[in-house]
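Worked example 4.2. Below are the chains of a multi-component assembly; read each line carefully before continuing.
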Amino acid sequence: MNLPFLLEIGTEEIPDWMIPNALENLHLLFEKLELPHESVTLDATPRRLVLRVDGLPDRQADSEERVLGPAKSAPPQAVAGFARKQGIKPEDLVVESTPKGEYYTFTKKVEGRRTIHILADALPGIILGIYFPKTMYWTAKNGPRFIRPIRWIVALLGEETVPFEIAGVRSGNLTAGHRSLGAREVVVTPADYVERLRDHYVILSAEERRGRIQNHFASLHVKSGRVKSGRVKADPALLETLTYLTEFPTPITGSFDPQFLELPEEVLVTVMRHHQKYFSVEDAEGKLAPQFVAVMNIPADPEGFVRSGNERVLRARFNDARFFWETDQKKPLVDRKQDLAHVTFQAKLGSYLEKTDRTVALTAELGGDGHAQRAAELLKCDLTTELVKEFTELQGVVGGLYARAQGEPEPVWQAIYDQYKPAGLEDSIPRNRTGQIVSLADKLDTLRGCFAIGMIPTGSRDPFALRRAAQGVVKILVEGKLELPLRGLIQPDEALVSFFEDRVRYYFRDHRGFKYDEVSAAMATKEADWANLVDLEGRLLRIQSLRTSPDFVPVVESYKRITNILEQGKYIPADDYDDYGDYEPGAELALYQYLVQEMQGRPIEQWISGLQPRLASFFEQVMVLGDNLPVRQRRLKLLRGIQNEFTKTADFSLIVTTS
Amino acid sequence: MPTFQQIIFNLKQYWADRGCIIQEPYDVEVGAGTMCPETFLRVLGPKPYRVAYVQPSRRPADGRYGDNPNRLYKHSQLQVILKPAPADVIDQYLGSLAAIGIDLDAHDIKLEEDNWEAPTLGAWGIGWQVMLDGLEISQFTYFQQCGGIDLDLVPTELTYGLERITAFLQVKDSVYDIDWSSDFKYRDVRYADELQYSVYNFEMADIPTLWKLFDLHEGEAARLLKLYDPKAADKPRFPLLPAYDQVLKCSNLFNTLDARGAISVTERVGVIQRVRKLAVGVAQAWVDQQQEAAQ
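Applying the procedure described above to all two chains together yields the following structure tokens:
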């Protein structure tokens, strides 16, 4: 008999961003039970994590187990004792030969356990084993921990309750509806569960909730009343948040006084998005429209209370922002520099004023012009503004906006605006050269300072986001094509150098998609410094395109052979080249000529295919490690010359070939 | 439309009906209702407790000379402590909103993750901010630690921003326009406070004097804590509550000095540590003193 299983963990509101991972985790833990089943469905709202399984057997299959008894030579009392222990007669035992000799054995029938019992035993551990980033206790000290208090549990296998208890909550067949619109207790079966929830204003499927929100966006296009040809700005992260923050999402459109559009769009959008979780709306030209879309957790707003409430809250927020915007303007950024003495950067690294001075100096060192130095000087002044105190996520952006309003030249205000870019590997780098230099200086100063005082990220601990800063440095250098010698800027701090080495690897491998061995080979070669990132990128691109050429594998194999021979021959470079005599006409001379005429000073892709046949005949016809020392040295020197041309691109011995 | 004071009466009655002691505000300046001994000390230890009170909460840096319609130096916070938290605590909370005239069917209520932490008190908890039609009206916290001590029973702390809730219900854009009673506006009662304390906190507070006071209160608290003897037979009479008052004084002085811009980079973390050390010291001694008293 195949049974459906329903598990609903009823909780108080779980933080939206933790829900998808928790479900995945619940699924994984369930699969570890290795119960045979057909399909698994996972669902969640803020108040419930739900696992539904189809096709579970009523009980597990019976099995047989062979129990090994005493040896055949054992005294009869021992044999009788064994039989008694197994609950059978001695004559029911059989003698079997095993590698150790002949033994009495007994084949025991093990009855399959009922699935309901397996589940009842396992579920408390599974539920409390779900991983959450931060948990709490709620019954009392040392009580069970979960993300939020568990208030009910539905656990049904078919019509039967899977009985267990967690934190004083007994499993059963009672779920709960929507907080304000549904019943506190609703009887369910696996068959009617979803519909019963819907009757009580809970839409179980995240897909369906997301759809309800998105449908409203579409309807904005056709609505002619409040919004004229408005379009909701796409915001997948916010959509996800609202999907998991509601059980019955219903979007509504509100509006605000167009006068507020005088404020910078960045500020308005931040208020709407981060503080109010509203979608913003743009007009046909892509300009911000005086509307917003809020998502309620109820089906309708017939009286318009919710809409007007949200509009009032937004008005107050915008009024605050305007007040800050106007107040801040009374003191230009440049006059705020000295105030940075009162803003701590880091206890041991001093104030932001000290950091500013260091960043200005570093900007000059990096070749930053007058604009760059001006930007560096004003870079952190927005930290003292009311607007940034209120909207910390707008650090930098606000400084840029004020700089623009205060008449700073475009390169300067843009550099300030973009200083925290790139926010991640997917984000773009600062848009102009000035911004790139200043952003590098700021990030490098942070990295150097933190490493100098031993604040080195470990595991998940990285309070100053140094990984992101270093990643940003790498991205700016490479994508800005800035030929700055990174090594000189991070030495002599060995820990910082190796930290960067990891970031560079990560960038090229995980972000740019170069293969593991390509990155290792390009970074390991002694002929080029990996810390010259523009050069490194160029070499990687070469290797990548070579890899598709048919000559690649044989050439790499030959390279490895050259390396082996040089090691075996214990070749030590010497400059007394001519003493070894002339190249022998034939393969040796041909190879030598190819080296000096075609290879030296030219990029690898130009000579690699021509090298292969010459190298092959050289190895075929010439004995390198012969007894004649001068000849041997000459040939080794030739091979070293060939090797050198390779290693200008990469250490090809690290390239993995399948042959 | 309920007046400001009617809303307070209704909430107090509601929680009194659910077993809460109704306390009056604590008479030492605090930055939040959590700092009152009725919360900070009562949440410690194994004894159940239920209390509600309106606490004027002073945040010197938030003063705006009475100019800003939403920001106040001193706002009124209704604080409810339910120790231990009942299983239906959220329903009880929602019931309190209904009791002040909020129709839950017609408004949008969301619980959004917002964990609470007070470094100067060595306290933190897990919880939400409660959003009503997009307005944050309450903070809802399950305390986990206080004074650096894991709590035996998990209390819920509910705080209501009374000015905001009233402005919402009375449909007023400025807190100064809300009706405190049928005859008086909020402005009539509190405007002078806002203006004068802003002037004092931002312009006129004498920095050396405040530092001197800070040192004196700190010294007094530290002196008392040093004298507390866990083995003393008469320790129930030891003045830990007065010692805690000294800590609260320090905390308010710190906030005032901070608003005055008198706390330098290097000092700031250190001063927070000094207050925290005292708060944690009182909490630990208090737990010890209560254990003895319970036997």
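Take a moment to check your reading of the output against the notes. DSSP finds 23 helices and 20 strands in chain A. The first helix of chain A runs from residue 19 to 31.
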